[in-house]
Amino acid sequence: MASLIDANRASWPQIEAAIAEGLYAVLPVGALEQHGAHLPLTTDTVLASGVARGLAEGIGALLLPPIAYGDAWTTEGWAGTLSLSPETLRATVTDIGRGLQRMGVKGLITLNGHFGNREPIALAARTLSELGFPVFHLDYPQLEAFAAQICESAPAGPGFYHADEVETSMMLALAPDTVAMDKAAPEYPEFPETFGLEPMKLSAFNRSGVFGDPRPATAEKGEKLIAGTVAECVRLVGVWKAKQ
Q: May I ask the CATH class of domain 5-242?
């Protein structure tokens, strides 16, 4: 199996040689948004980059630098969040894909770390597919099942992980120096009945920016969550690549 090529360190001849042997690219997509008082604004980008690195190592792919901004409109009620419009994010992923196609990369795998990015990425994937360039877009497959097995606290909502035990554990595994556990505090807000049915900023019903309880988080739990998610990403990419 080919080894990981990190675009942060690679030269153009290294990329050219890898393309000649058949190369896929992995693109992490994160966000700059609030994650409570105990986690940094870059949490989604750190997590997406960590899982993407594991995936790229597992399949021998080109790991691209992350897109560090996303569609974070829902958290603009808290200071620090900077959001891209869905159109801008879609165009960014599309342009990166076109560049990869032009240089001869076989396909693009996106690893998304922020819920608001899903639709723009999916639309970019459709555009690129229509141009004949294969794109496979992943979030954190099976994370809900892994969290149920590994974590102690209940999620704030089904599959809703934000600044809670899940994300805090993963951050403790990937970037422990950025986590302030002494500031970790729970919040379980009551979701409005129309949540998900209309545009809504989360600050309308949440005070701290935390959804769940981050206090039981540990690096060991984070390592298990990441390992399980990476393994499932590798498996799904294998299924996808077999169809190419």
A: alpha beta
Cα–Cα distance for residue pair 54/158, rounded to 1 Å: 26
Nearest to 138 by CA among 18, 3, 239, 15: 239
Place of tokens 């001869």: 104
Query: CA 106 from chain center: how many Å?
Result: 22
- The domain locations on the chain are 5-242
CA pair distance 206, 188, nearest whole angstrom = 8
Beta-carbon neighbour count of residue 181 at 10 Å?
14
* Closest C-alpha to 85, from 72, 94, 76: 72
Q: How far is CA 186 from CA 46, 88, 208, 214, in A?
A: 22, 34, 9, 6
Please, are residues 232 and 154 in contact by the beta-carbon 8 Å criterion?
Answer: no
Is the pLDDT at 1 greater than 90? The verdict is no
Token digits of residue 234 = 């590798």
* Residue 221 and residue 179 in contact, taking contact as beta carbons nearer than 8 Å: no
Rounded Cα distance between 170 and 161, Å, is 11
Query: pLDDT tens, 17-26?
Result: 999 999 999 9
DSSP 190-228: PPPTTBTTB---GGGT-SSS-BB--TT--HHHHHHHHHH
Q: How far, in Å, CA of 163 to CA of 115, rounded?
A: 13
